[in-house]
Each structure stands twice: as C-alpha cells, then as structure tokens.
Amino acid sequence: MIVMRVGKLLESQLNESAAPRLRIIARNGTGVDMIHKETCLKRGIVVTNQPGGNAQAVAELALTLILTLLRRVVEVNQRLRAGERVPSISALAPGLYGKVIGLVGMGDIAHELAKLLVHGFNCKIVIYSPTSAKTKWTASCPNAPSSAIPHTRAATLAELLPQIDVLSLHCPLLPETKHLISTPELALLKTSAIIINTARGGIIDELALAAALRQGQIAGAGLDVWGTEPPTTEKYAELIGMGNVVALPHLGGSTDEVTKVGCMNAVDICFDYLEGKPARNKVY
C-alpha cells in the first residue's frame, strides 16, 4: 500500500517490476492527477482520496492570498524592510469588502471560500461551473439545502470575467481545463482584477499570466500551485520576483491538523481494504 500526501507516482514506480505487491494508493487530499492512472487501471491498483478533507484549510489560504494582494501586504512590508518611510496615504488599497468574486468550480473548497467571502466580507459571488447542477448551492438542492449561498451563475467564462474583481480557481486539472486561463481570458479581466489559484498549476497558462502582469493587464496574482512543482526561481524567476505576485509552494492543505487527520484516515482506508472491506472514497 502507499499513503500519499505530496509528489508524483509515475508509471516506472507503479509497474509490476517496481511494485509487484501494490494493491492500494490512499491519497491524503482530493486530486489524484499526480498518480499514473493508466498503470493503476491496468494492474487493478485501487486509488482513493479524501474529498473535502482539506477544504477549510485551502479556502483559508485562498482568502489569505486575496487579502494579501488587495491590501498590498507584501509590497508594503518589503518597502518597510528596505528602510522606506511609508505614509498610509501612499499605501491605499482596494480592500475586499463588497467586491465581486468569480469562482471557477463549485467543489468543497469553493463552497468554504464562498461562505467566508459572503458572510465575512459581504462579497457578491459569480460562478462559472458548467458541470455543476443548476440547483447547487441553492435552497432547492435536494442533497444539501443548508449549503445555500447567495450567488449568480455565468454561462461562459467570457460572461464571468469582465464583471469580477477577483478570480479564484477551484476546478480539477483535466484536458479541457488545461490553460483554461490564457491570453484571451486575461484580456477580459479588469486591469484592477487579481487571480488566485489554489487548484492546479496547469489551469493557468503561466507564460500568458506573466505577460499580463508585466504589461499591467491585471493587478496581481496569488499562486499556490504551479505547472512544475516545487516552484523554483530557475523556472519561475519572473513570476516569483514580481511585486504584485504572492508565490507559495502548494501549501493549501498544509496545516498541522489537516495533515495529521488526513494521514490517519488514509491509513485506515488502506487497513480496511487490505482486511477485505470495500475501499472508501474509491476514485478508480
């Protein structure tokens, strides 16, 4: 068995010669795109995850990135550290209260973030999520009416992007979502808008994002996930070095409690499966 928190599992690590007795991979987290699916399916290796297990922690970090950018925290901190006297009038910032937030995706993390934004900051939520039921997050949702959150839905990204102040990504990385945000989409955003990505790095075209930030097409970006991880200055010198970018190395679910509980749950899933019970939270 493998209990997986971070990293990748390649075909060379999962094939018959490398792991002849492997029966189950239990992911401490939601996404499984870092596990070589074809090899697992071919060999009958069960893969499980923990949907929603880190939702509150990732939503907390997404909110942190939003506030850090909209209050110019990193920029002003760096100015102070450099010895500059910073009168408050020279550090005015847009703030978050009452802003329009665009969410791509309606999973558990997006839901937790939306609750924080609506109830804590009186934000308006606009969502693009073509695969989600129209009743989701509404009082008429048959499975969870208590999860209702005031929001509107956009039929397309082109409808969503021009009207929002913050774009926060919460969709999985799939062939159809790779580079979902690229040059045409960035051009539709307000020049005062910021982008937050706590989902997967490949959803954003990073070269296009760097160009948009460099040219002032958008105001900033908060990035916790990258096309190549871990992010290094050799690979991402420009993005990491920009004053209007907050860069983190995929810390979304990395709180003490979430990591401990997630690992314990993953071990329990493996133990039960090896004892002959059905695999809980089986992905494939």
UniProtKB/TrEMBL annotation:
Superkingdom assignment: Eukaryota
Name of the protein: Uncharacterized protein
Species name: Naganishia onofrii
